[in-house]
Amino acid sequence: MAAVAMDGKALAARLKEEIRQQVEQMPVKPGLAVVLVGEDPASRVYVRGRKKDCTLCGIYSEEYILPQETSQEELLDLIDLLNGREDIDGILVQFPLPDHLDNRVVQLAIRPDKDVDCVHPASMGYIVLGEESLRPCTPSGVMRLLSEYGIDPTGKHCVVVGRSNIVGKPQAMMMLWEDATVTVCHTKTVDLAGECRRADILITAAGQRGLITGDMVKEGAVVIDIAVNRDENGQLCGDAVYDQVAEKASYITPVPGGVGPVTRAMLMENTFLAARRHGK
User: Fold this and answer.
1) Distances, alpha carbon 46 to alpha carbons 42, 78, 94, 216, in Å
2) Which residue of 77, 91, 203, 239 sits 20 to 30 Å from the alpha carbon of 29, by its own alpha carbon?
3) How does DSSP assign 34-87, residue by residue?
4) d(CA 155, CA 179)
5) Is there a contact between 53 and 30 (Cβ–Cβ < 8 Å)?
6) pLDDT tens per residue, range 102-156
7) Distances, alpha carbon 193 to alpha carbons 189, 197, 216, 224, 245, in Å
8) What are the angstrom distances between the C-alpha of 22 and each of 138, 173, 251, 272?
9) Could you give the CA distance from residue 139 to residue 145 in angstroms, rounded to a whole number?
């Protein structure tokens, strides 16, 4: 039997409507500032998408499109200004930055309570400790999808393929806190196929098209494909060879339409939660 395709679009639409209803009850609306350095077309599309999401959720938004040659001092001055503004609850800087700018210095400059994209080291620290905090948007989206489809990680063997600071590592920690047994792999893992075949829940975020084939998936496993790649025709695809994996899995996320839309909804939720913590 072919896998159930997990509908991230439908879940995201419902979550954003729930956020909109809660924001309507707030006397002061949440505020989000999005900062982009340079004219990368894909990043511009991303910024426009966040603006649309804010409008749908009733969240006030500002966007700052800075020239490619913006200096580190100028960027840090802007972040310092946004840190101090009471009407801005969340700051989202589009990474990676141009080569002449230091990503880590900029990440450290964002106030942790306004770090809605969870790039500050404090955010990872809170996750490791299991403390209440804002959660990275993509791993949070994965957890919402699992819950939506009644998939309980408790006692399951979860294999995470990918070790990035914004997805793979926090995803592994969040699965641990849901009582899964977690193995973290990557493209250098010896016998990656064997590790993947042990997974009850396989989460892949390596960013390598065709990495996960049907013979790497246990019958009935849940496969969450976070990666966004492009195939030879320029079409979006994940790490998994979808048709092959869907024949073995019980549930699978399509790319596009799976984790991505829920990730966007989680950014809106983080902005809303940050505003609540700021007393709005």
Assistant:
1) 6, 20, 9, 33
2) 77
3) EEEES--HHHHHHHHHHHHHHHHHT-EEEEEEE-TT--HHHHHHHHHHHHH-TT
4) 6
5) no
6) 999 999 999 999 999 999 999 989 999 988 889 999 999 999 999 999 999 999 9
7) 9, 6, 5, 16, 13
8) 22, 29, 31, 9
9) 10
Beta strands in the chain (DSSP E): 4-5, 31-37, 60-66, 90-93, 157-161, 181-185, 201-204, 222-225, 229-230, 236-237, 251-252
β-pair type (157-161, 181-185)? parallel
Write down the pLDDT at residue 41.
Answer: 73
Report the share of the chain in percent with pLDDT over 90. Answer: 91
At residue 181, φ and ψ (nearest 5 deg) are -95, 125
Q: Which amino acid is at 125?
A: G
Closest CA to 63 of 92, 105, 85: 92
Tell me the two tokens of residue 109: 């400059």
As a whole number, mean pLDDT of residues 176-194 equals 96
Supply the mean pLDDT for the chain. Answer: 95
Per-residue pLDDT at 1: 64
- What stretch of H or E contains 267? helix 259-277
Smallest CA-to-CA distance from 258 within 221, 216, 228, 235 is with 228
How confident is the model over 239-270, as pLDDT tens digits?
999 999 999 999 999 999 999 999 999 999 99
The two tokens of residue 42 are 């894909």
Angle between helices 168-177 and 121-129 in degrees, nearest 10 = 20
CB 72, CB 107: distance < 8 Å: no
Tokens encoding 245: 């994996």
Q: What is the pLDDT of residues 34-68, one digit of tens each?
A: 999 997 777 777 788 899 999 999 999 999 999 99
